[in-house]
Design a protein that fits this description.
With 466 residues, this protein is of the alpha+beta class. It folds into 3 domains: 1-29, no CATH class; 36-59 and 286-458, v583 domain like (v583 fold); 65-276, Enterococcus faecalis V583 domain (Enterococcus faecalis V583 fold). It is 36% helix and 20% strand. It has helices spanning 11-18, 36-43, 48-60, 72-75, 97-109, 119-125, 183-205, 213-220, 232-247, 253-264, 271-283, 345-349, 363-366, 370-381, 407-413, 444-458, and strands spanning 4-7, 23-26, 65-71, 82-85, 129-132, 138-139, 151-156, 163-167, 211-212, 294-300, 303-308, 316-319, 324-327, 340-341, 384-393, 399-405, 419-424, 432-438. The longest helix is centred in the middle third of the chain and has 23 residues, at 183-205.
Length: 466
């Protein structure tokens, strides 16, 4: 029987299909503008195929265990006046409203100012320093602000000894990571410093075996979580693993009860373990010459940046986009800040927005429909190098999540990574205003491709095809 392959507009395919002839529809798109020569150069790089194979193997070979909970001053060496933030590097002058609000809250929390409103003048004078979390093997959700007295989850790949870090999750609404700095925010942060952090450390130390975070991710993806905006099963499994040691650690029963109540009532608590687990895996691929795999996607509320395995620590940045989605209360699009946070590290590793098919209920939070969620996961496979057999999706016949975003595939297809995310108010102090879907600015991928092509030519690996 005759068969037909079609691409482009569906008119011809529909007409042939109506005649009973088998039709294969190919969703072909031209490459991103201006990328043809660089795509040809990188495609001809003899290092690329083996480098990407090694990058994928490195990522898939990592397992993350929770080995400690400790102050940032202890594990990151932060001192008074030093702050970390989400996304690529930025100065106070260019900082978004929610990032400024988070920094103001942190300055007051550290006792550097009496009132959060006094902090902007200190930042403007340069009294304090700002650095990305990613530059310290750490990640932070939304504003991602970390200060010395904040407690951090410490994750380790037992095979290599490498570690990554993330702050503890405050919950939703009026919280520091969404840029809020009212008194209740500071009260919660002090309780997390004085009670939550120390008790979690005792619980982790008293657990016979370190909590297998990678293993929890495997289970929660089969229980309706996607590990970015839905972490309910993951949080409860974490609580299951830590509760016996927490209850028997000898702490004040009232404090133990409050910790159990706080974690159990905060469905997002596990997000701050999923993020460093993903970073731990992706960092294993850094520095592989010729590799075109993305190892970080991060946003500071002003810029969206990516880093690539084969280009070192260089950031490729463009303007962060405002997510499209659902809003809380009377908030609307005009209230939302552009995309912010290191939490897109989950999508970079193949979960979150890449695994929406495993958590179709997420559409009730971020918008869209269940078919949209299934289609999103299938579409992300088109721009990835592999799939992760450890993290599978039941509704897609247990296919592994798409893993290893490939710069060349993004540029060749024009398909951008999909991220599901919370939305912070653009005015400092507002807090959360909604949740939705967003993609990176398209220009960051051609910029990364151009750098990969430049490196290939500099090695003499390929002839300049321009």
């Amino acid at each position: 029987m005759t068969a037909v392959v079609t691409t482009g507009v569906p008119l011809l395919a529909d007409a042939v299909d109506a005649q009973g002839v088998p039709v294969t529809r190919v969703d072909w798109r031209p490459p991103m503008p201006g990328t043809r020569d660089d795509l040809a150069t990188v495609a001809a790089d003899p290092l690329r195929a083996d480098a990407n194979r090694r990058a994928v193997e490195a990522v898939l070979g990592v397992t993350a265990s929770l080995v400690d909970v400790a102050p940032a001053s202890e594990v990151l060496g932060l001192e008074a006046g030093q702050f970390l933030h989400a996304g690529p590097p930025i100065t106070w002058e260019r900082a978004s409203g929610p990032l400024r609000g988070g920094l103001m809250a942190a300055a007051a929390f550290e006792g550097l100012v009496d009132d959060p409103e006094d902090a902007p003048a200190r930042f403007e004078r340069g009294d304090f320093t700002l650095e990305p979390c990613h530059h310290h093997s750490a990640v932070g959700p939304m504003a991602g602000v970390v200060s010395p007295s904040m407690w951090m989850f410490v994750l380790e790949d037992r095979a290599s000894g490498r570690r990554t870090f993330c702050s503890l999750n405050e919950g939703l609404g009026k919280v520091l990571r969404y840029g809020a700095y009212e008194p209740s925010v500071l009260t919660r942060l002090r309780w997390m410093r004085d009670v939550l952090g120390p008790l979690l450390r005792r619980a982790v130390a008293g657990t016979p075996e370190p909590v297998d975070v990678t293993g929890i991710l495997t289970q929660m993806l089969q229980m309706g979580d996607e590990a970015h905006n839905r972490n309910r099963a993951g949080t409860l499994m974490l609580l299951r693993d830590l509760s016996p040691a927490l209850v028997s650690c000898g702490a004040d029963p009232a404090d133990v009860a409050e910790v159990l109540r706080f974690v159990g009532g905060n469905d997002h608590f596990f997000l701050n373990l999923a993020m460093p687990a993903c970073k731990l895996a992706l960092d294993a691929a850094r520095g592989i010459e010729g590799a075109t795999m993305v190892v970080a996607m991060a946003r500071n509320g002003t810029d969206f940046g990516i880093q690539v395995a084969g280009t070192g620590d260089e950031w490729f940045t463009g303007p962060a986009q405002v997510p499209e989605g659902l809003f809380l209360g009377d908030f609307g699009p005009d209230d939302a800040n552009p995309d912010i946070g290191d939490s897109a590290i989950t999508e970079t590793a193949g979960i979150g927005g890449f695994a929406m098919a495993t958590a179709p209920a997420i559409v009730r939070l971020v918008g869209g429909s269940v078919p949209d969620a299934l289609a999103a996961t299938r579409r992300m496979h088109e721009i990835c190098l592999a799939e992760n057999p450890r993290w599978s999706i039941p509704v897609l016949e247990f296919q592994g999540v798409p893993t290893g975003i490939d710069v060349t595939r993004v540029c060749r297809t024009g398909i951008l990574p999909q991220i599901n995310t919370g939305m912070a108010g653009k005015v400092a102090g507002t807090g959360q205003v909604g949740a939705g879907l967003v993609t990176p600015p398209a220009e960051v991928f051609p910029a990364a491709l151009a750098r990969l092509a430049e490196l290939a030519r500099s090695r003499g690996a390929v002839t300049d095809l321009r």
